[in-house]
Amino acid sequence: MIKFLLIADALCGITSWRVPSLTELLTIAYNGRSNPAADLQRFPNAKSQSYWTSDGVSGVPDNAWTVNFFSGIGNSKTKASTFQVRLVAGNHQASQFEASRFVDNADGTLTDLVTGLMWKRCPEGLSGPDCSQGAASNKVWGVAMKTARDSTYAGHDDWRLPNLKEMQTLVDVASDNPAQDESVFPNPNLVLNFWTSSLTKKQSPVTQSWRINFQYGLSEVKVRTQS
User: Fold this and answer.
1) What CA–CA distances, in Å, run from 178 to 132, 165, 206?
2) pTM (two decimals)
3) Does residue 103 contact residue 110 with C-beta atoms inside 8 Å?
4) Among 24, 41, 125, 210, which residue is least crowded by beta carbons within 10 Å?
5) In whole angstroms, what is the distance from residue 213 CA to residue 220 CA?
6) 8 A C-beta contact, residue 198 and residue 141
7) What is the 3-state secondary structure (H, E, C) of 86-140?
8) Chain centroid, CA 175 distance in Å
9) Band of residue 1 on the pLDDT scale cut at 50, 70, 90
10) Within 10 A of 20 (CB to CB), how many other CB atoms are there?
11) Among 162, 142, 148, 168, which Cα is nearest to 222's?
12) In angstroms, rounded to a whole number, what is the distance separating the alpha carbons of residues 93 and 148?
């Protein structure tokens, strides 16, 4: 973890200011725009630069996570670098991945007690107690969206692709390759790339969407016709 020396003065009467986790800082990224990827009414003078998080990068001890607010994505940067800092106060329960958050529904699904979201435990195409049966299904974005809408898995008909911030809550920054807790989400076939429903900055026509690469948990912009 990065160590920061913070001013002891109580800004706005609050003395619990700290550097945010990766998940916390990504919650204020505005992925529908860029340069900066921020809501300028709520965060005036936001810089199109990288901001530090408090999370180190698993497997890369000299690096820590930043969020690049030009495009609103997480990046691995050397701890010797100099970047912006935006502080946060309070406890956000989904700021770190904890296996205890998830309840196994015994039907191939898990419920996150913090976010209230239900997840399919195995990637599409895979099944079994350790998700080792079958073959992972790689789909272009449009087909992935339709597959989710049409699914009735485990008797539910409200499946959808998660948005970028929802998917980010599954990243375990303490792990890498995959950046997931495999006791919760088994990944014996090392499925790394997962589409989200989130669009990139507004374009005409829109040709790109966000996905997360779970090798380290990086957010990526990809052309929708790429599987």
Assistant:
1) 15, 18, 30
2) 0.84
3) yes
4) 41
5) 7
6) no
7) CCECCCCCCCCCCHHHEEECCCCEEEECCCCCEEECCCCCEECCCCCEECCCCCC
8) 14
9) very low
10) 23
11) 142
12) 27
Question: Contact, 122 vs 130, CB < 8 A?
Answer: no
Rounded Cα gap, residues 130 and 112, in angstroms:
19
Query: If DSSP codes are grouped into helix, strand and coil, which group holds residue 218?
Result: strand
Tokens matching residue 142: 């449009």
User: For residues 180 and 210, what is the distance between their CA atoms, to the nearest angstrom?
Assistant: 18
Q: What percent of the chain has pLDDT over 90?
A: 67
Measure the N-to-C terminal CA separation of the chain; round to a whole number of Å.
35
Over residues 56-104, the pLDDT tens digits come to 999 899 999 999 999 888 889 999 999 999 999 988 777 778 899 999 9
| Residue 205 CB neighbour total at 10 angstroms | 4
Q: Which two tokens stand for residue 19?
A: 């550097």
Q: Are 203 and 213 in contact (CB under 8 A)?
A: no
